[in-house]
């Protein structure tokens, strides 16, 4: 049995991020790491009850392991949506108890649910009763400026009694008033010790920690104290970091040989998506713009892939343009297409 299988499934994961971790983003991340657990954007129970279920739940089989994050506060609605998630093949159902946005609060879910641990317990039990996959909770360590450890400890205790065995702890308080969602990710201080204390108090539970991770060293330090680390924006902006995770954190062979191969695999995916679902490559490419961060020519490569004037070109031709080195001459056909689009000058091309 590979050593990676012996680790907790939550050892490394990429956080659910609205407008970012869609199925195209998750496909990219899976090319970079075979073992990292991937999360969907938060999907509300209302969106599944009254919207396009296929649009919200469709994903590529290559994404496994992949978890569905739900937003809601009505036990019956969450049970219905959890059952849908299991039927669609998700490996886990996660309840959002951490989002502090006012829009989410108006729906009476997200971080404000931490003030109602028994309601969260009822929601968890309703989902646990109807699915076989794990039901997990992602939450904050406190609400507003209340930094009393007893608040989060009691929350975890009540919800655990309802059948939740996995808690993903965003190690900042959520301020429900006075801070934007962006400020809520930056201003309340990170307190990793709270997650470590929860693990000590609830050794039978799986405790993963989220918030502010940017380096291998920071991840390894927390993996010595808790069961897993969830990485958010750094994984999105610098996706090549994930290419080290299988080896560094799971003891497995790396998934991605080169950035160039990942780019080619993404272009093949773009072509399949266009054929099967009519998805334009531009909607996929936005997620891989950080793939070459730190390398010479990364800025120009990123500019080509994000240039809306090239949207009429096939993805494979855009890749060829992006890879044309400074001072080199692009193939005549590509140059003509790019000039016609206004993305390149009419004089001799020196990229």
Automatic annotation (TrEMBL):
The record marks 96, 182, 185, 299, 302 as: Interacts with tRNA. Its EC number is 1.3.1.91. FMN binds at residues 16-18, 69, 138, 170, 210-212, 232-233. The active site is at residue 99. CDD domains: DUS_like_FMN (cd02801). Residues 14-310 form the DUS-like FMN-binding domain. The keyword tRNA processing applies. Gene3D superfamilies: 1.20.120.1460, Aldolase class I. Keywords: Flavoprotein, FMN, NADP, Nucleotide-binding, Oxidoreductase, RNA-binding, tRNA processing, tRNA-binding. It is an enzyme of class 1 (oxidoreductase). It catalyses: 5,6-dihydrouridine(20) in tRNA + NADP(+) = uridine(20) in tRNA + NADPH + H(+); 5,6-dihydrouridine(20a) in tRNA + NADP(+) = uridine(20a) in tRNA + NADPH + H(+); 5,6-dihydrouridine(20) in tRNA + NAD(+) = uridine(20) in tRNA + NADH + H(+); 5,6-dihydrouridine(20a) in tRNA + NAD(+) = uridine(20a) in tRNA + NADH + H(+). Catalyzes the synthesis of 5,6-dihydrouridine (D), a modified base found in the D-loop of most tRNAs, via the reduction of the C5-C6 double bond in target uridines. Specifically modifies U20 and U20a in tRNAs. Belongs to the Dus family. DusA subfamily. HAMAP family: DusA_subfam. PANTHER family: FMN-LINKED OXIDOREDUCTASES SUPERFAMILY PROTEIN. This is tRNA-dihydrouridine(20/20a) synthase.
């Amino acid at each position: 049995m590979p050593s990676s299988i012996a680790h907790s499934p939550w050892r490394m994961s990429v956080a659910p991020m609205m407008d970012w971790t869609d199925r195209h983003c998750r496909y990219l991340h899976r090319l970079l790491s075979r073992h990292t657990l991937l999360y969907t954007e938060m999907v509300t129970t209302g969106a599944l009850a009254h919207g396009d279920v296929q649009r919200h739940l469709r994903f590529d089989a290559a994404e496994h392991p992949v978890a569905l994050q739900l937003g809601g506060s009505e036990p019956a609605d969450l049970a219905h949506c959890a059952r849908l998630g299991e039927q669609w093949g998700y490996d886990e159902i996660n309840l959002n108890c951490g989002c502090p946005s006012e829009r989410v609060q108006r729906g009476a879910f997200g971080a404000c649910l931490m003030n109602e641990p028994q309601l969260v317990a009822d929601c968890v039990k309703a989902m646990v009763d109807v699915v076989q996959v794990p039901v997990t909770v992602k939450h904050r360590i406190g609400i507003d400026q209340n930094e009393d450890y007893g608040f989060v400890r009691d929350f975890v205790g009540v919800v655990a009694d309802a059948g939740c065995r996995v808690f993903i702890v965003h190690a900042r308080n959520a301020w429900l008033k006075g801070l934007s969602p962006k400020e809520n990710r930056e201003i309340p201080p990170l307190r990793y010790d709270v997650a470590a204390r929860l693990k000590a108090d609830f050794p039978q539970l799986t405790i993963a920690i989220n918030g502010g991770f940017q380096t291998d060293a920071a991840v390894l330090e927390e993996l010595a104290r808790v069961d897993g680390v969830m990485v958010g924006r750094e994984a999105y902006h610098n996706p090549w970091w994930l290419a080290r995770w299988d080896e560094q954190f799971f003891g497995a062979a790396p998934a991605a040989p080169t950035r160039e191969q990942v780019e080619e695999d993404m272009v093949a995916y773009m072509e399949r998506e266009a054929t099967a679902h009519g998805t334009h490559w531009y909607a996929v490419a936005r997620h891989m713009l950080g793939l070459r961060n730190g390398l010479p020519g990364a800025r120009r490569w990123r500019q080509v892939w994000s240039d809306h004037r090239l949207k009429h070109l096939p993805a494979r031709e855009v890749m060829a343009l992006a890879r044309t080195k400074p001072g080199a001459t692009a193939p005549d056909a590509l140059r003509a297409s790019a000039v016609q689009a206004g993305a390149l000058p009419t004089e001799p091309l020196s990229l």
